[in-house]
Amino acid sequence: RNSTQTFEANQTNFTNTENYTLRNKKLTGFGKIDLTYDISKTSSLEAVTKYNSGAINGTSNLVFNGASTLQKLKTNNGLIDQKISYTNKFKEKKVFLLTGRFIDEKSPQDFKINRFFYENLFPDSQDINNVEQLSENKMQFAGFEAHLLDRWENGDLIELQVGNQYRHDNLNTAFKLKKDENTLQLPSGFQNQTQYSTNNLYLKSKYQWEVISDFSIIGKLDFHQLSNKLESEVVTESEAPFFINPSLGLDWKINSKNRLKSSYSFNTTNAGILDVYNNFVLTGFRSFQAGTNSFNQLEASTFILNYELGEWTDRFFANTFLVYSKNHDFFSTNSIVEQNYSLSEKTLFKDREYLSINSNIDRYFKFIRSNLKLDLGYLQSNYKNIVNSSGVREINSQNYSYGVELRSGFTGSFNYHIGTKWTSNRIETGEFSNSFTDNMSFLDLLFFYNDRFETQIKAERYFFGNLQEDNIYYFLDLNATYQLKPNKITLSLEAKNLFNTETFRSFTVSDIGTSTTSYRLLPRFVLLCLKYRF
Asked: What is the pLDDT of residues 383-423, one digit of tens each?
């Protein structure tokens, strides 16, 4: 891929260019054993064991602002996942579930870059000509849960869950400044030895009350007693917070054509290992990230409203879904961005809002035997961050989408599916504003010649509104299938990229600038395939 990134924030402006090629070699081994024992007609025991072992060796060639760079990433992964479940339907409408689970995972990495880009970050580094980061990631999880479901004669449903979950994470990273194969520096603030353990003892309850026929109120109440422990080079801390997550909802079938669902919930979530480690970790050839080095529980309120008009099998069906969420606490970043590197520390902020509205309308027209679908969407969000000591920045983002599709339901040998969708994006900060509209259109044609022979043609058109040139792309694929022997031997012809489009460019906008990326595509090709099933 080729990309151009323009940075604009706090009176700092620069442009980076990249020409990037990646080659990966992957080797994965996976095993799974399922054991099921039916103790009786109403109870059973099931054990599932999974094992995964993998290795990825990646080599990338990067030309960054004219400087050639070689990067190597070696990753190993090992996973054992054991789950045991006991189920007992001890009465007609009463079920008891007991589950236990254990996970052990390791994923060490070795990342090497044969150039040194960080002279301004590490001034005393005249002899450095390459860098390396070794990371060791370990995770262990153990938990159990007892779950009771009881449906009463009047239709009410009660659920109780009692459980305990323990998780221990170990993150060790070593960032090395090297001359050839010799390590000259292990810079302070860029090494991590973090152990983070959490224990969650919980009780979850749910009650669905059938107030009247077709009207239910659903209440949920979850109790969590946490025990957290954080150990690093500079701190050893423990805490034991207790919190309650309530939720209240309703399900009202107004009549045969109208249905309304709604819920409100207040949730507290615990920070994870990627939020709490203290020093910087190299996450890309020019990106360093750090956690908060502290405990945090994040609070959020969410309101959901869903309205349905008609049934999905009717000739007319409409569905509207609204989600409003307010994060009373949320993680964002405090960043220092330079042309050759960026440092981002996770920072806790207050009050982030998110609003999403989606509507789908389906109408079947009998005289053309086709279904018309309208798709409307709106998304708005705001958040905060700090860039280059700018102070707290308010970022507002808006997204509109509107599309139409027409799909046939012919009983003959031909069917079609045609549609188009526009997406408009706008992002604003105190010093930066950008907006654009993209469009994607498609046409699918399906031909059934007989029970054995069929052909499918797929055409697509892409338009990117903020690209000044080469902003329209066409693609055409064809697939023809013939069953030499039904359900046994199939012969197919697949033709891809028949217009022979060589590159594909896309444009994105963030709160700190813009990015244009060009991907090199496979040229036009045709495959003749023979499949045998036994």
From this structure: 999 999 888 999 999 999 999 999 999 988 999 999 999 99
CB 307 within 8 A of CB 257: no
* Rounded-to-integer distance, Cα 479 and Cα 447, Å: 11
Q: What are the distances in angstroms from CA 404 to CA 375, 407, 440, 458?
A: 6, 10, 11, 17
Entry pTM: 0.88
Considering Cα of 291, then 297, then 301, then 306, what sign does the dihedral take?
Answer: positive
Amino acid code (one letter) for 253: K
Taking CA atoms, 319 is separated from 71, 259, 402, 418, in Å, by 49, 10, 15, 21
Give the residues across from 279 on adjacent strands: none
Q: What is the pLDDT of residues 119-134, one digit of tens each?
A: 989 988 788 999 999 9
* Separation between Cα atoms, residue 419 and residue 404, nearest integer Å: 6
**Among candidate residues 397, 405, 292, the one with its CA nearest the CA of residue 349:** 292
The amino acid that residue 500 corresponds to is N
Let me know if 221 is exposed, middle or buried by CB neighbors in 10 A (0-12, 13-18, 19+).
Answer: middle
